[in-house]
Structure formats: C-alpha cells, structure tokens
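From the shared-data thread, chain only:
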Amino acid sequence: MSVDQLLKDGEAKMQKTINETKKEFVNIRTGRANPMILDRLSVEYYGTPTALKQLANVSVQEGNTLVIQPYDKTILAEIEKAILKSDLGVTPNNDGTNVRITFPPLTEERRKDLTKKVKKIGEDGKVAVRNIRRDMTDTLKKLEKEESLPEDQVKDYQNDIQKVTDKYTKEIDKLVSEKEKEVLTV
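Structure, as tokens:
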C-alpha cells in the first residue's frame, strides 16, 4: 500500500464516520416531525420485515405530525404495531385510512437529556475518527520500516494525517452544535 492510498482510505473511513453520525442525529427527536425518523422502521408484511418507506407515503402535517398513508390499507395495524415496538416513544393514531403520529413539545428536562445524547454521539464519532488516525499512523510506521522512507517525509505524512483528522473532528463538532441548537430551540 502506498502512502497516498493510505491517506485516501483513511479519509474515506472518516467520511463514513461523519455519515453515521448524521444518521444517528436524525433519530433524535426534536419536537418537530421528521419523516426520516421512520427510515429504520420495519413492518411485517406477508411474513417479511419490510421497510416502512416501501409500504407507505410519509408526510409532515402542521410541523409536529407525521401522516403515514399505506399503499395497502390492510397493513395499518402492522404499521401501528411496529411504531409501538420501536424506541420512538410516541403513540400512533389509526383512523382507518392513515396512521398519524403527533410529536408533543419537548420538556426542558427532555431537551437537556437529548443534548447530552447529542454530545455523546458526537464524542463517539470523534473517537472513531481518532481510531482511524491511529490505524493510519501505525500503517505509516510499518511502511516507513518496509520502504525505508526518510524521516522528514514520514513527519510530513503524519502532519497530513493530523490535518485530515482535525478537519473531520471539526465537522463533527459543527454537526453537534447544529443539532444541539435544533434540540434547544422551541
């Protein structure tokens, strides 16, 4: 493996970490309805777990209500059951044609809990980025011995690795800050 490939692979892994952090943030409820919160929900459909988004149209109504319109009305009860089993913490209302989920406004205490959760997810993301940096540095040291790279060139590569790491940890900090603002604003 070349050093350039090492840097490229490491940066790709860090970008994946950013994407995973963003996915985790989508699952944090903020009092506003967000259809993406249902993306990981599976519904039993003819004995097969199927993604909700393949079975229904999900739309936002009045900012705090999700309306789920199934393509097949016979699965309303299964959709309701899947929502109740999930960790969303909301109760669905089935009106016979649609399932509605109303998100109540968050209490101050719940907002503080969510802020702590956001910070933890962000910290986990930064730890993952640092672990990638450590792996890259270890691989660089092996390459240094195998290919007898000059010491000053190795230092330059280590600086490059640190710059990439700093870039992605700053991006995670920015994501955490935006999500905290979203959670704390009414």
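The mean pLDDT is 88.
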